[in-house]
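Help needed: design a sequence for this.
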């Protein structure tokens, strides 16, 4: 009978895993530009049936970093539009909710090329989103926005707005830089602590610095790309920064002596 406790433990672990996978109560979801899909956390995404804008799976030509293989498709398909576009999210009951927005930049190779806002029921919840600036190209990025519903009002970031009917709008707002887009999204009736999150971004330079500090010789971090550094200076290098001013102090008396000697020489020649 020694096998019984181990079987019990395994069953408990399986139950805990099942509960954790079903803990998030998703009330709405979409795999923008794609088909139905279930991610590694057990969250089910519905097929995108929106008629506005363009659906694209161009991201399938690359690997999306920061997520497991099963979740990459959520960041590889997208919907974009040359103007604002929206999804309707049904909201019936009062309570705490969380909106999760999923993005990845699969086209541009620099910041400030695609910048846009996101609104929930007319309120800005993400402003000036530049995916490449946040994480780079081909890297998953999530925006997690908690909000409340109480007495037919939506409360987000301390602002209240009326809920007309039984749904609210999720709007991707066009800015001055290219088109707004969405890769995937869902709304869960849950606390923000219950929402699965992405792992932190890799920071190899910080890890190297920590290793060097353990050896007693910390290295200086490499400069950031935005730092203005002049790699090449014009003109010859000067060993002594005061060399020019020192030589000038000697030259001035010489010029003065020459200036005084010239009239004297002229007078002598006249004699």
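Sure. Designed sequence:
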């Amino acid at each position: 009978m020694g096998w019984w406790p181990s079987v019990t433990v395994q069953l408990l672990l399986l139950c805990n895993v099942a509960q954790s996978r079903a803990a998030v109560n998703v009330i709405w979801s979409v795999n923008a530009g794609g088909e139905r899909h279930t991610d590694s956390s057990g969250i089910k995404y519905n097929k995108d049936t929106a008629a506005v804008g363009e659906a694209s799976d161009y991201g399938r030509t690359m690997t999306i970093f920061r997520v497991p293989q099963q979740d990459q498709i959520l960041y590889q398909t997208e919907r974009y539009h040359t103007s604002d576009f929206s999804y309707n999210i049904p909201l019936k009951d009062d309570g705490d909710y969380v909106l999760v927005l999923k993005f990845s930049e699969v086209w541009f190779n620099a910041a400030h090329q695609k910048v846009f806002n996101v609104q929930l029921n007319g309120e800005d919840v993400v402003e000036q989103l530049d995916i490449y600036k946040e994480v780079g190209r081909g890297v998953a990025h999530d925006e997690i926005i908690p909000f409340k519903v109480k007495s037919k009002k939506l409360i987000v970031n301390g602002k209240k707005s009326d809920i007309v009917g039984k749904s609210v709008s999720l709007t991707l707002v066009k800015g001055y830089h290219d088109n707004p887009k969405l890769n995937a999204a869902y709304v869960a009736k849950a606390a923000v602590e219950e929402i699965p999150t992405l792992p932190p971004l890799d920071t190899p330079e910080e890890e190297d610095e920590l290793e060097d500090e353990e050896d007693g010789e910390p290295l200086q971090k490499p400069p950031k790309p935005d730092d203005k550094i002049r790699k090449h200076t014009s003109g010859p290098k000067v060993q002594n920064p005061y060399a020019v001013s020192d030589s000038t102090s000697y030259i001035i008396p010489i010029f003065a002596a020459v200036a005084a000697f010239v009239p004297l020489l002229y007078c002598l020649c006249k004699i």
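The first helix runs from residue 3 to 21.
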